[in-house]
Amino acid sequence: MRIIKANKIHSDRRKHMGKVILGLTISLDGFAEDSKGSVNTLYADLDLLKETEVMKESILTTGSVVMSKKEYGMAEDPDWYVDYEYKVPIFVFTDKAPEKHPKESDKVTIMFVTTGVADAILQAKAAAGEKDVNIIGSALTTPLCLKTGLIDELQVDIVPWFLRTGFRPFEDLDNNDIKLERVKLVGLPAGRTHISYKVMNEK
């Protein structure tokens, strides 16, 4: 298995074209959330992750972010997006928009989309222009997004510990529905492994 060093990622920037990227972190036994629906345990290495070339590259190439209402509301600080790494428009798919719109900055705007996951992705693509749409994956979000046929790349980070129980993201997918081709494999600090797969959608 070939490991691509993180600093090689810089050489790919000139080739970059906007993609719809679905990213998530799973434990070694395949869970994207613990039994309480939290992802905190999977990001115990978050401070190290922020300093990697993978994360820095993602910040540079992301033009918009898509997440579910659950991910949007998970942070303890209600104003978390003010200091969010991605200074881009955020599209939150939800059944109902909040009555009071959250405060925004000149770069971070928030749009609540009540017309479905696919529509949220399409609106995010329009906002991103030539940059990437970065979808924050979870046990629920991942199969919903993959089934839209709009995903270009699936990025999975695997952390080297076990949750033993919780929620898995790929159990609701038929193996024949999604075809993948691995395009990148990067070893990150704290034993985290970053894998990128091209999603072979039928056009």
Query: What is the string of SSEs from the N terminus onward?
Result: EHHEHEEHEHEEE
Helix content: 10-25%
SSE-based structural type: alpha/beta
* Overall domain count: 1
Q: Do you know the CATH topology? A: Dihydrofolate Reductase, subunit A
**Averaging pLDDT over every residue, what do you get?**
87
Unreliable stretches = 1-14
CATH architecture type: 3-Layer(aba) Sandwich
The CATH class turns out to be Alpha Beta
Q: Helical stretch count?
A: 5
Q: Largest sheet, order of strands side by side?
A: 4-3-2-5-1-6-8-7
Number of strands: 8
Q: What does the radius of gyration come to?
A: 16 Å
User: In one word, what is the shape?
Assistant: globular
State the CATH superfamily name: Dihydrofolate Reductase, subunit A
Secondary structure: elements and pairs:
Elements: E1 20-27, H1 46-50, H2 53-61, E2 62-68, H3 69-72, E3 90-93, E4 110-113, H4 117-128, E5 132-136, H5 141-146, E6 153-159, E7 180-187, E8 193-199
Parallel strand pairs: 1-5, 1-6, 2-3, 2-5, 3-4
Antiparallel strand pairs: 6-8, 7-8
Write up what this structure looks like:
- Strands 4-3-2-5-1-6-8-7 form an 8-stranded mixed sheet.
- It has one domain (6-199): Dihydrofolate Reductase, subunit A (3-Layer(aba) Sandwich).
- It has 5 helices and 8 strands.
- With 203 residues, it is an alpha/beta fold.
- It is globular, with a radius of gyration of 16 Å.
- Mean pLDDT is 87; it is low at 1-14.
- The protein has helices spanning 46-50, 53-61, 69-72, 117-128, 141-146, and strands at residues 20-27, 62-68, 90-93, 110-113, 132-136, 153-159, 180-187, 193-199.
